[in-house]
Amino acid sequence: MHPVTAPSFEDGAVLTDAAGRISAIGRNAEVPAPRAVRALHFPDAELTPGLVNCHTHLELTHLGGGAQHAEPEFVQWIRRIRELKETTSAEAFYEAAVAGIRDCWTRGVTCIAETGSTGAVMRALHDLGGRGIVYQEVFGPDPAAGPVSMFQLKTAVGWLRTLETAQLRLGASPHAPYTVSPSLYQAVAEFARQENLPIAVHVAESREETALIQNAEGPFADALRARGISIEPRHASPVAYLMGLGVLQRGALCIHCVQVSPADVELLREVGATVAHCPRSNSAHRHGRMPLELFRKAGVPLGIGTDSVVSVGDLDLWAEAEAAGLAGEDALRALTIEGARALSWESEIGSLEMGKAADLAVFSLAAPRRPSPPPAAQLTVVSGRIVHQISAT
Q: In this structure, is the dihedral angle defined by the CA atoms of residues 381, 387, 390 and 393, taken in order, positive or negative?
């Protein structure tokens, strides 16, 4: 048994109540076993909190394969993914979302933080009874198109909000500095504050992004000018740029954060932002390595994400932890309670504690302590409900 926020111990048990919460936890002999309660025994396994995937694009699951859509340059890769999305039907996005959620469950993941533009993952999580935060993406690098982008966002939020539950939240994601104009960033940030929507944003991911914001140079700058969009150097890092626009408010989830300085990390700490680290995606696109220790020393909440299967090929969070240089209990903390903190959900999930939601995962013996454990969990439970199971006695 690995409670995560308390020492691990042998022969552990968890009792969940009808509301899907942990009502008792401890050694098996000490935990009540009411007659009406179904008992599952896993004698050669380890019980952990459900894993938290802090950044996904599950609506793109059907495009999986990692290198399948690889392009030599990041700008061309993004353009290719946009083209593939434009030829995908709403039904295909929904089926991809369902497949992605079920894949996460087979790996012991009980909470996802999705960014997407179609609403498919919000619908699928609602229909399947899953847990997550879905950030509705907003695009619009041309300031003149800002009102249309805001109308689309408000329309999407209006109908997606009807799907919210205690375990399913909606947020907003102005995509990235190369796809969102300054005025649109400000409009989305203000709308998010008014509507109490958490924000997620891709920021400081690539050298190309830094060149665009700092000096109005590089392939992103060239692509925008080719579309007739005027840009100017901001003489600031992407993090400082978004801070100045009021986007990085408390609890904002900053995705990637590879190209950051100590000053950027301090800005994120001061405002109370959090970070989603996607090491394998960063490596696949040759963006470099995030300075993980800078964030840890600063105390910035940081979780791990897989990004999309189009970038890395699968949704293996253990492989992400290994790529980040984490192993054993350190990896388990990063994939559970630290991920929950990055999503501002640590009071509800991320550890095995009385009163918390019964989000649980069972892995084969010693799996959480191996550098590369098998990806399949024996059992995955979300709010006390079994969503995946392959064996039990």
A: positive
d(CA 47, CA 43) in angstroms, rounded, equals 10
- Alpha carbons 21 and 387: distance in angstroms, whole number: 15
DSSP code string of 132-194: EEEEEEE-B-SGGGHHHHHHHHHHHHHHHGGG-BTTEEEEEEE--TTTB-HHHHHHHHHHHHH
Q: Report CA-CA distances (Å) from 338 to 305, 306, 322.
A: 12, 15, 16
Per residue in 276-328, pLDDT (tens digit) is: 999 999 999 999 999 999 999 999 999 999 999 999 999 999 999 999 999 99
Task: Tell me how far apart the alpha carbons of residues 242 and 202 are, in angstroms, rounded to a whole number.
Answer: 11
Give the residue carrying structure tokens 């300075």. 291
Q: Are strands 379-382 and 360-364 parallel, antiparallel or unpaired?
A: antiparallel
- Tell me the Ramachandran region of residue 310: left when phi exceeds 0, alpha when psi lies from -120 to 50, beta otherwise: alpha
Domains and CATH numbers, the chain: 48-350 (3.20.20.140)
Question: What are the distances in angstroms from CA 117 to CA 66, 122, 152, 370?
Answer: 20, 10, 10, 36
Query: From CA 300, how far away is CA 342, in angstroms rounded?
Result: 9
pTM over 0.85: yes
Q: In whole angstroms, give the CA distance from residue 189 to residue 60.
A: 26
